[in-house]
Amino acid sequence: MKHRVKKALALLTGLALAGAAAAWVLHHADRNRPLFRTVAVKRGDLVATISATGTVEPEELVDVGAQVAGQIIAFGKDKNGKTIDYGSIVEEGTVLAQIDDSLYAADVAVASAQLEQAQSSLERARADLEQSKAKLRQAERDWNRAQKLGPSEALAESSYDAYQSAYETASANVKVGEAAIAQAKAAVAQARATLERAKRNLGYCTIRSPVKGVIIDRRVNIGQTVVSSLNAPSLFLIAKDLHRMQVWVSVNEADIGSIHPGQPVNFAVDAYPGEIFRGEVAKIRLNATMTQNVVAYIVEVTTDNSSGKLLPYLTANVQFELGRRTDVWLVPNAALRWFPPPGQMARQSRDSTKRPEPASAVPGEGPAPPPGQAGGLGRHGTLWVPEGELVRPMEVALGLSDGTFTEVQGQELREGLEVVVGLETRDEKNPGASPFAPQLRTRSSPSARP
Q1: pLDDT (tens digit, 9 = 90+) per residue, 175-192?
Q2: Which of 40, 49, 139, 224 has CB 3.0 to 4.6 Å from 167, enough for a Cys bridge?
Q3: Which residues on neighbouring strands pair with residue 36, listed in sequence order?
Q4: What is the per-residue pLDDT across 382-424, written as a single tens digit (0 to 9) for each?
């Protein structure tokens, strides 16, 4: 009797273990069955942009330099009566600095004396000319009388020759006097130019603002000696109008074809987190730069700065607006990249659907639509819609893309339609563990305790 009971118990135990093992296998298989990760098609607005980094710059800068050498002995006063410094507001003609002018004042004095001397020489030359003309008239009368008498008993031949020589000499002296006047006039002009130059250099000792604006940079101190050689030393940097600013943006050559004058631009600066500033493209500079074999162009973006918030040389994170769509169907780009394995396609779709060329080595992905495609709905793509445990394709027309979402259009699109973006597997943390294996107990670390 006991033997029968033991056999029955062993049989029941075996059946229970077999049933548990079968249940575990079925449960494990169900856990590993692939599931589709889906998202719902939605309507919304989309803006396609190109991102770049730039620097805020004043719209027009004037670099004020020194045209003479010397020591800075004083700074001028701004419109509020304060000493010229960083941020000073100046008017056109405001004195910015004073260079020691003692040497240049001496040059003016020397040039003035030389001009007076040249003018005196000119007056003397004119007087000498008048004297030569008087002698010429006398010699001419004597020579005329001698010609009437001729060489005779009344006029010796030597006297006749003397009158002729005197007349010729007087004529030559007049020409010499005229030449002396021309020379004296040239000397006066030269002395006057030297004086003008000396006065101008003396005036250069006073550095004045050529425009109305704001001092952005002061590059000298009192007592510092400036040396003017081939290049004028820079003393002050003045911004003409800080109410209009520019952003100089470096744009990669791959994106420059999408940039054009008048294009809307949004940008942000770290000084004002969360605030968006707006501007537009003014020009594209043609002098490209190359850094590590990457060609970039500088794009000038103009913006209004009436608030005065934007300061020169802030770093700007710029978004060039390529296109804008309102209330259109949107899907993630991942839904357009995903392509199912043949076993997961509906039967009627396996032969008619062509797998897109892969954009990467990641299985199940194809090429994503290019961001910033600003054209109309001309390209085509495929979305995959779940049908039970399989998926079927849905052809759609592609429009604008911002790199994350893409505008699509199709007859089957509707609000809430689920499209596949990838696969996920129902799996436990340890899917391969047998339910009959012993479970190890672990002690929680102090940081994991409640």
Answers
A1: 998 899 999 999 999 999
A2: 139
A3: 423
A4: 999 998 888 889 999 998 888 889 999 988 888 889 999 988 7
Contact 283, 352 (CB under 8 A): no
Q: Residue 428 has what pLDDT?
A: 45
d(CA 329, CA 314): 38
DSSP β-ladder status, 95-99 and 70-75: antiparallel
Q: Is the pLDDT of residue 302 over 90?
A: yes
Q: Are 423 and 341 in contact (CB under 8 A)?
A: no
Please say if the pLDDT value at position 203 is more than 60.
yes
Tens digit of each residue's pLDDT (9 = 90 or more) over 20-70: 555 554 555 455 555 888 899 999 998 888 999 999 999 889 999 888 999
